[in-house]
């Protein structure tokens, strides 16, 4: 039987309180203390919105840019932004720059470990900083678009449109990476992981992370208004690799990756404080993205979800020296975020120092800013126009099924 709630609220009621400056807004950290002190029911009655935050590497990110037409006009077929290739398979002057794209002459890993000093994430950071970015473009020429070459400067202030369009951000949970090899350190998207269980890398804000505070996606869905890199943005779809049917704990929190979000927002309003190009030694380029999501406390259940603590959230410990890359083996165990944030976890009877890739201080800052925006009546909560797939759908991430190719016929 479905649980009956005694303090239901609606989005409209909460927004009316925000409009009047009467909404009670707390961060996810503050909600933990409130629920412990006063219980779930009183916390649900008292609080209207809980704010969350996260800041860390999010490789599946990029920006759409419309440069405007040159004279003569040009249908751009190849383009580079500060020597970083951009995708041109769109309309004539629409470009997409992904954060993991390195500069065209980057030596990559030919001199290992590669430095990957500048890439798409750095281009986007420069655009957000209002710096000029060099655009070099080529075209094959058509009757309506006769120009074949372009070399100029662009600036985000003069672009027609410039917006982040990130296919997968804000992973609900994630692996803890360790290295069982006794031979060498490894260079991964989880950073440098030291040999012989010399370190453990993790990447989540834990109790402040958005989807861990709404584990079944009751309030976060398509159309949800969010904090995105210092601006107001939106969830536009489930993120790629969204996999809600993963194993969960008794509190509903998934024990591995699970949910993801696709997000969009106006680059012109963003702040480099919350978007940074990044270089992962021996791995590649990426960007750190700041995201905050307000969670309306519609009832006691949402109050209980938003009081989740680091001690109640576990993540799988995975060997990245072999098992991860070859899709083999099982997790070496599970550890809580309270253990991870203590600086040491114990695996196979050994104490291993931990290394966070995400910034908890930044996550706190984002949750705090979002709280202020709402309290000042500058940010309203948006009811999703469609919810994300839930565990009930059975949706689960599928590996690539390779098929033999013969004669080029499927």
State the end-to-end CA separation: 49 Å
Please bin the fraction of helical residues: 10-25%
Work out the radius of gyration: 23 Å
Count of alpha and pi helical runs: 6
Overall structural class, as computed from helix and strand content, comes to: alpha+beta
The biggest beta sheet is recorded as: 9 strands, antiparallel
- The overall pLDDT average reads 97
Nutshell version of this structure?
By secondary structure, the protein is α+β, with helices and mostly antiparallel strands. The chain contains six helices and 26 strands.
Overview of this structure, please?
The chain has helices spanning 11-19, 28-46, 120-128, 300-305, 337-342, 360-375; strands spanning 25-27, 49-51, 54-57, 62-66, 78-81, 84-86, 94-98, 133-138, 149-154, 161-169, 176-178, 186-188, 191-193, 200-202, 221-222, 225-228, 231-238, 261-266, 275-280, 284-292, 294-296, 314-319, 333-336, 344-347, 350-356, 386-387. With 410 residues, it is of the alpha+beta class. Strands 3, 4, 7, 10, 16, 17, 18, 19 and 20 form a nine-stranded antiparallel sheet that branches. Strand 1, helix 2 (28-46) and strand 2 (49-51) form a beta-alpha-beta unit.
What's the layout of helices and strands?
Layout: H1 11-19, E1 25-27, H2 28-46, E2 49-51, E3 54-57, E4 62-66, E5 78-81, E6 84-86, E7 94-98, H3 120-128, E8 133-138, E9 149-154, E10 161-169, E11 176-178, E12 186-188, E13 191-193, E14 200-202, E15 221-222, E16 225-228, E17 231-238, E18 261-266, E19 275-280, E20 284-292, E21 294-296, H4 300-305, E22 314-319, E23 333-336, H5 337-342, E24 344-347, E25 350-356, H6 360-375, E26 386-387
Parallel strand pairs: 1-2, 11-22, 14-25
Antiparallel strand pairs: 2-21, 3-20, 4-7, 4-10, 5-6, 5-8, 8-9, 10-18, 12-13, 15-26, 16-17, 16-20, 17-18, 19-20, 22-23, 24-25
